[in-house]
């Protein structure tokens, strides 16, 4: 019942903001043009289409806002006026009242914010789909940002997810590609990540882990800045962290005025992404421009700043190895290896012919090489790969959905910073070095060091275990004799079953003959 009401509400909002007109205006067909004239009732809406779409997504809730955030980074896929308007969803969602934020802080931490902090700004500095942020100053003088969860979020998300589950079930039953796309599994993954965002203690833990991954001990501190978590002021609905200052990565002109090399920034962004994915297997998965800043402080000028750690992705060793080999095969134009990897991983049926899959992948990817990022649309590449995959029954892997989403965000940011950035050439050297460190002598040495502690316990036991095994009585003849006995018993049982079945058949035939006389 809730799902039905939610669906009706979505249809009401779409009609209220005239989204039907927006959809029909983008279809170049005489029938669509005729329908457009009908729904307009002879006049076009006065409010711009981008504003109407943004307001509709805001009124529908956090899941739809997140959808708009992703769309805002893809100016190659949607009109510029819509992309500019949707960019406001990244940190300018209408805030909830400050007195509710103060009440939630007091309920979570046991005291009012004006008691906990030397100074607390009642007006939020940023408001997103899940929470809003207030600046504050601790009693020891440290400047912090306090993130407060929006009230009632869990109920809203549950209703939207129930609708998505119903739609996913319909797609799986009715669409030709429904089962292969695994829509219900994809929704289940989305469910996990959204509920993770509702627990700000989990987000604080993600922040702490990413900060360790880019600490001075790793030698990566010059690439990415992560705020420090103030654990004593954290709870499931409140997250307090170090205040970071910088320029939003989408404000390219401000970056240039601060003497920041945007071309180098674009290259470093790709490096940071691949480093998180392949070296750590733990990556920031919500990298839209509202969450990524660039430091303008003299000591850290030009360094990326990451914020909002509610959604992070993780990959298994199998996924990392498989993806790295696929990327390298693409970069080297080794399409035969790409086909082999798809078959070896089980993503396509084992009966697939390598030569056919190789030719299909080559036809999709070859036209895009040796071209700047401004001329490459990853969305178009993925669309063509999807169309090709239907022919070979390629199964969608739900665990990689976040990675695909993040890659689209990274591409969108790279396009803004440096339209001439070559995504392939920037990533290829890093992946080659990663594979060398993993598979070469350096990788072998690292694995030996990792397993040394276990070997130190097992090696002294090997002589005793070998001696005990050599002195063990030979059980081979006895085992063979027992197997022979079992075989004979089985044959005897089979003969008895044949006799019994014959007797039953004769009895049944006699009974039928007697009844028919």
In short:
With 517 residues, the protein is an alpha+beta fold. Helix content is 61%, strand content 8%.
* Helical residues, percent: 55-70%
Topology, number of strands: 11
* Assembly annotation: single chain
Q: Count the helices. How many?
A: 23
Structural class: alpha+beta
Low-confidence stretches: none
Largest sheet: 5 strands, antiparallel
Strand content: 5-15%
Describe this structure in words.
- This protein has 517 residues and is α+β, with helices and mostly antiparallel strands.
- The chain has a domain of 152 residues.
- Helices cover 61% and strands 8% of the residues.
- It contains 23 helices and 11 strands.
- The strands form 3 sheets. Strands 1, 2, 3, 4 and 6 form a 5-stranded antiparallel β-sheet that branches. Strands 5-10-9-7 form a 4-stranded mixed β-sheet.
- Strand 3 and strand 4 form a beta hairpin.
- The chain is globular, with a radius of gyration of 30 Å.
- The N and C termini lie far apart (63 Å).
- Pathway: Cofactor biosynthesis; ubiquinone biosynthesis [regulation].
- One of its GO terms (molecular function) is protein kinase activity.
- Belongs to the protein kinase superfamily. ADCK protein kinase family.
- One of its GO terms (biological process) is ubiquinone biosynthetic process.
Fill in the keyword field for this structure:
61% helix, 5-stranded antiparallel beta sheet, globular, 517 residues
Topology (SSEs and partners):
Elements: H1 2-16, H2 19-25, H3 30-40, H4 49-60, H5 62-72, H6 80-86, H7 98-109, H8 113-116, E1 119-120, E2 126-127, E3 131-137, E4 143-149, H9 153-174, H10 178-181, H11 183-197, H12 200-213, E5 224-225, E6 238-242, E7 247-248, H13 252-257, H14 262-280, E8 282-284, E9 292-294, E10 304-306, E11 312-314, H15 317-331, H16 335-345, H17 354-365, H18 378-392, H19 401-417, H20 423-439, H21 441-458, H22 462-470, H23 476-516
Parallel strand pairs: 5-10
Antiparallel strand pairs: 1-3, 2-3, 3-4, 4-6, 7-9, 8-11, 9-10
